[in-house]
Automatic annotation (TrEMBL):
This is Glyoxalase domain protein. Residues 5-131 form the VOC domain. Signal peptide: none annotated. Keywords: Metal-binding. The keyword Methyltransferase does not apply. It comes from Natronomonas pharaonis (strain ATCC 35678 / DSM 2160 / CIP 103997 / JCM 8858 / NBRC 14720 / NCIMB 2260 / Gabara) (Halobacterium pharaonis).
Length: 132
């Protein structure tokens, strides 16, 4: 199999609206869709938003109803982080720091890359990369 392209990443979060606000404020995300589905008995099974960041989609799923419906289980391993290429890591980090975003790693040089790591409100790790 050869996939045509990478389409999206889906993240479980504690608060969909808080996540949406974070990605809008810090990554200029555009809301693409807001979805809600019930399990047929009136209970919320899935509550999500999808945002466009750069040329990819990020889906944020409210973890509580998603897990209660048995659609996913807890997975302590697997996803590590995702990254965005930026023109200037130092400038991006200054903007994020001014807004109180938590850093895991301040800007550092690794070969021909300058990288930094931040977290979103759900604790998802986001890497910022600059080709130097």
């Amino acid at each position: 199999m050869t996939p045509e392209s990478f389409f999206h990443i889906a993240l479980k979060v504690d608060d969909v609206d808080e996540g949406l606000a974070f990605y809008r404020q810090h990554f200029d995300a555009e809301l693409i869709e807001r979805g809600h589905a019930d399990d047929g008995d009136g209970a919320t099974a899935v509550n999500h938003v999808a945002v466009a960041v750069a040329d990819k989609r990020v889906y944020l799923f409210d973890r509580a109803p998603y897990e209660a419906a048995g659609l996913v289980d807890e997975r302590p391993t697997g996803f590590l982080h995702f990254g965005y290429v930026v023109d200037d890591v130092e400038a991006a980090c200054a903007d994020l720091a001014a807004s109180g975003v938590e850093f895991i790693m301040e800007p550092s040089v690794f070969g021909d890359l300058k990288i930094a790591f931040v977290t979103d409100p759900a604790g998802v790790r986001i890497e910022l990369l600059e080709h130097i």
